[in-house]
Amino acid sequence: MLDSSKSISQLRQIAPWLQPLWDGFDLQNFPNAVLIHGQPGIGKFEFSVQLAKALLCEESNSSAIKPCNQCEACHWFATANHPDFIALVPETHRKLLPHADFEGEEVPKKGKSARDDSDGDAQEKKEKKNISIEETRQAIESLSIGSHRGGNRVILIYPLEMLRSDSANTLLKSLEEPPANTIFILLSDRLDRVLPTIRSRCRLISAPRPDRAIGLTWLHTTIAALPEMQFNSADIETIFDEQGGAPYSVLNSLLARHNKDEKDELTIALQASRILLQSMSQGGRINWLETAEKTHKAQFSILLATMQRWVSDVQSMKQGGLPRYYPKHQATILSLAQRANISKLLQFWRSVTQSRRHENHPLATRVQLEALLSQYQQVFEG
Question: Are 5 and 101 in contact (CB under 8 A)?
């Protein structure tokens, strides 16, 4: 397994394409609640962790750069011991918090024999992808106690759209009457899924995606700090396009490929996405039953994103444009575009978009995949 500790300090820094956002903040007059939204994988979570650290920094010089990384508060934050920082994130995202940098914090995965001996449960528990109502209530209730260190208290929630409705209503009550010196940093990959009542009580901040040159430069610099990783520029650029220009998603993809952990969710999803693309390139000849069988165990959200990007490129070439996500498959996409029924193609796009509204709470994933891929096949019939 790759030890990525050498790159942690760089990843904790503000990504260059997000620096203008950072420079525009007035930490002395910060709003009670901000909602930072944008495409997943562009670094807004890492950005927000640094923002929380800066808001909790106790450097007394108002003109000093924050976080100072020298004061006691910064030290506590870096070691995941700051009592006034609350992070509400699913288990799948906790490794991104500061404590993930330190040895001994990560719980080792059980081996096969251990799993076989654990009360008959042969499968390792999957990490929860939702934020529970219990966690939300406990966090909100703790805000009434007051700040432990007499300064700000920061609560970070990501992804906001993954809050269950009861948890979202609990949060809403606190946003309507925010406790003194409490700052909410809310993050969303899909702003359209956030309750309008929550959006209206926050300052909305749109996090931009980097342009291609800046994103690729950052990736090359980051990967260069990891000598164990060997990827050529063509591979990096291909994955950059496939991931919609999201550098952190690209880095995660490369790490998963390097580590070759067959049980890692991201590795499974990447392998399934490649199978899905190979099948969708067949157009009307797709074996949708077999494809669903081979891919349904992967994260449904990643499979849907892959479908959406592929169909977006087919639509683009159908209308005389160029592929954005899969330029290396331009010839195949052009052939499909020429054979596609435009009305059926648009209907399939709408079906995928509709499915994405429930991608984090999928029911009968295999059945849904079969239905979508069968519909995709019909795009090229008649």
Answer: yes
Locus of tokens 């703790």: 142
Q: Which two tokens stand for residue 63?
A: 């003109």
How many other CB atoms are found less than 10 A from the CB of residue 199?
16
pTM: 0.76
188 and 297 assigned to the same domain: no
* 76/69 Cα distance (integer angstroms): 10
Query: Each residue of 105-138: pLDDT tens digit?
Result: 343 333 333 334 334 343 344 446 667 778 887 8
Look at residue 242 and tell me if it is in a domain: no
CATH number at residue 359: 1.20.272.10
Tokens 């939204």: give the residue.
Answer: 37
Q: Which domain holds residue 370?
A: 261-378
201 and 267 part of one domain: no
- 182-188, strands of its sheet edge to edge: 85-88, 153-157, 182-188, 33-37, 203-206
Q: Give me the residues paired with residue 180 across strands.
A: none
Place of tokens 């620096």: 19
